[in-house]
Structure formats: structure tokens, C-alpha cells
Specification:
407 residues; ten-stranded mixed sheet; three-stranded antiparallel sheet; 18% strand; disordered N terminus
Length: 407
């Protein structure tokens, strides 16, 4: 999940959003796109195009009115090196799978931003030697996909590494300078106080380098949050941090502030419903905030009994919903109107206990696992979120394993 934006008061920002959101993307014969309005990139929800049962982007566009997608994540190769890959395993240089998805989105009048980093895995800021080489790696991604927007998702464990953060912020500044008009967002962890010590150090690094993205976004979930009120309180506190760090007015700070939520049940068991999203959306638009997004479209559908109802899943929300309910809040933030066709089948509350399934191969402390590998441990099946070795499957925060239920 970031560029310098003009200071707007709340009322002016909302008016500007409504006008800007009418811009559409056009494509040429080569599939390259002209930019959407920045508001669409600011509203783009996260989508993993190669993992977590990727939904069809075209179907989401038809059902919700969504035009922009935040594709995740670009990482360093699992085997080492300073070259961009999808999820540490699929080199960008030889990619055709993600490119085909992007072309299909653009053919329907949409576009994408690409997110680098995320939680876990080795980031290019950790693997590359300096800001210039880090920027060169990301430039390959921008050039390959003709990007008009990019997101720097700086969180654990990378944002605890001073050198890596310096590389990432320096790379963001270089990309901003070398790609005029590039929409740049920087996303980091959220806390009740706005963001934690490492997040504040990241802001200070940006200040020291003279770098101002379109927005700094926080993720107010997985930190003891409880619904929308706790999230809007964190956004208010983060606004104060932006003011004090950069010397901005309140309105200028909101014009450079973003929200990145998690739909449904979070990793730590917090619940964020459609009503919570509406409350935060109202807060974001009334305060002239620059960004409203969420993790993720892969999860923007109701769990089924064979899925993962009642537990956090990478492929469904674990709350009662119609498919793409949460995407429609992004559409509203962009200034568009979602379709109003009612669902043919109303949602029901998902079961709290999914049925047992067959056990996968037993987890081994000596084996190396990559994203998507499945194992069994303590009578549960588990799915790896990223590269891991000798980390026992558990549901604790930061653990690389996703619980897929009893077996």
C-alpha cells in the first residue's frame, strides 16, 4: 500500500472526489492503460491474484461496480536476490498469469495498483543493498504492468529493520520522481494510539528523506480493536501523529491519511461488519481522507460449511454477507454508485464448527514450506501463508500457518 497531494478541506475534498471518480480507463491494442482517477486507486481493495482461491475480478466488477484492484504481494525471491517476484515464488520477469488478469481487468474499463511487502516473507528492501537498487527492482514491476499506482506495505518484520525501511522509503521517493503522476501509498500497522513505535520511526524516515506520498495508511485491526468506534479513534490519533511529524494542519494531514481495514473476522478474532465499514467510510469521507481500502477481496464472500465458518479464513469473511458486500464500500468511497440488484439468496449466519475433513501430510520441523502448502498438526489441517521452516502451526498472531479446521 503511496504521492504529494494538494491540501483540501473536508468539504472541498468530497466535492473533488465526486468529480474525479467519473474518469474511466481506456486501453490500447497492447493492453496498456491510461490512468483512472486517483480516487479509484485510493479505493482499490487488496486481491491476491495467485493464492487464497482468487475470485474472478470481472465478476466482482459486474456485481459491485468496482474498477480498481490492489494486487498483492511483490516480495524478494525466497531463495535470495534483489529481483521482484509474486509471493516470493513467481518471478515478475517471466510472469504471464498475473499479466493476463490485469489485461482482462483493463479490457473491462478497470485498472490495478500493485502492493509490495505485506506481513511476513522477505521484502526487497531487506534483500537489496540500497534505495537505488530497491527502486530498480520495483521499476521492473511498474514497467512490466504499465502501472499508474503502487503501494508500499511496510509492516512486520521489515519495518523493524532500519536499513530496510530506509531502502523502501528511498525507493518510493525515486519511483515517485522517475514516474510522474504515479500514485503512491504507504501502509503500516495501526494501534489504538494511531501507529506504534516502528510506524512512527517510518514516518520520521520519510520526513528525513523529504518524501511525501499520496497517503500514509494505517491498518486498525489485529491490535485489540472492537468495531468501527475503535478504528475511527485510531484514525483521529494517527492524524495527530501526522500533524506533529510533518507540521501539517489537521486538514492537510487528513488529505494524506488512509484507512486499510479487514473485512469480517480478523486474524485475532475481531469482527468488522458491513455496518462498521459504513461508519468508517462516513468518517473517511467527512474528514477528507485520501484512502479507504481493505484486506481482502479473496475474503469478500461468505464461508460455507466446507470452508472455514467461525474462524479466520483467507478465502471468506466468517460473517454473514452477500458476495462482494465489502467491495461496495470501496465503490462508494471512489464516488460511484454500486448496483442495487438484490441477492437471490439472503445470507445466513455461518456455522461455528466446520465439518471434519481428511488430514493432510503431517507437519515436519525439518521441511521447508511455501505459501499454499498444506499439512496436518494436532488433528487440524493447516495452510502456509508464506515461506516457513520449523515453526509449529498455531493461531497466534504472526504465525505463518492458517488453520483450515479439524481433520
Amino acid at each position: 500500500m503511496r504521492r504529494l497531494r494538494a491540501c483540501l478541506g473536508a468539504a472541498t475534498a468530497v466535492t473533488t472526489v465526486a468529480l474525479a471518480a467519473s474518469a474511466l480507463v481506456t486501453t490500447n491494442a497492447a493492453g496498456a492503460s491510461t490512468a483512472l482517477s486517483n480516487r479509484w486507486y485510493a479505493a482499490a481493495p487488496y486481491l491476491m491474484p495467485l493464492d487464497n482461491d482468487p475470485p474472478d475480478a470481472g465478476a466482482i466488477m459486474d456485481a459491485s461496480g468496482l474498477k480498481a484492484f490492489q494486487l498483492a504481494f511483490i516480495l524478494a525471491p525466497n531463495g535470495g536476490g534483489c529481483s521482484p517476484t509474486w509471493d516470493g515464488t513467481a518471478p515478475v520477469s517471466s510472469d504471464t498469469a498475473v499479466k493476463a488478469k490485469i489485461d482482462a481487468i483493463r479490457a473491462k474499463g478497470g485498472d490495478v495498483s500493485v502492493s509490495i511487502g505485506g506481513y511476513g516473507g522477505t521484502k526487497l528492501g531487506q534483500a537489496c543493498s540500497d534505495p537505488a537498487s530497491t527502486a530498480a527492482a520495483y521499476q521492473q514491476v511498474i514497467t512490466k504492468y504499465s502501472l499508474k499506482a503502487i503501494d508500499f506495505d511496510l509492516e512486520e518484520p521489515e519495518y523493524e529493520n532500519t536499513a530496510a525501511v530506509k531502502n523502501e522509503i528511498g525507493a518510493a521517493k525515486i519511483l515517485q520522481q522517475n514516474n510522474p503522476g504515479l500514485y503512491v501509498s504507504v501502509t503500516t500497522a495501526g494501534t489504538a494510539d494511531g501507529t506504534g513505535w516502528f510506524g512512527k520511526q517510518m514516518l520520521l524516515e520519510a520526513k528525513s528523506q523529504g518524501f511525501t506520498p499520496n497517503n500514509f495508511s494505517i491498518m486498525p485491526f489485529d491490535g485489540g480493536f472492537n468495531g468501527a468506534a475503535s478504528q475511527t479513534a485510531a484514525l483521529t490519533n494517527f492524524n495527530s501523529i501526522l500533524q506533529s511529524t510533518f507540521g501539517w494542519s489537521q486538514a492537510t494531514a487528513y488529505a494524506h491519511e488512509g484507512f486499510s481495514g479487514m473485512n469480517g473476522r480478523s486474524d485475532t478474532g475481531e469482527i468488522f461488519t458491513q455496518a462498521d465499514f459504513q461508519t468508517v467510510l462516513d468518517y473517511a469521507t467527512s474528514h477528507g481522507m485520501d484512502r479507504f481500502t481493505f484486506w481482502s477481496l479473496n475474503r469478500d464472500r461468505q464461508c460455507t460449511p466446507a470452508d472455514n465458518g467461525g474462524r479466520t479464513s483467507g478465502t471468506c469473511s466468517s460473517v454473514a454477507q452477500n458476495s462482494w458486500d465489502f467491495a461496495k464500500y470501496s465503490v462508494k468511497f471512489a464516488g460511484a454508485t454500486p448496483p442495487t440488484t438484490p441477492p437471490t439468496t439472503p445470507p445466513t449466519t455461518p456455522p461455528t464448527t466446520p465439518p471434519a475433513t481428511g488430514c493432510k501430510t503431517a507437519w515436519s520441523a525439518t521441511s521447508v514450506y511455501t505459501a499454499g502448502n498444506e499439512v496436518s498438526y494436532n488433528s487440524h489441517n493447516w495452510k502456509a501463508k508464506w515461506w516457513t521452516q520449523n515453526e509449529k502451526p498455531a493461531t497466534t498472531d504472526g504465525n505463518p500457518w492458517q488453520d483450515e479446521g479439524a481433520c
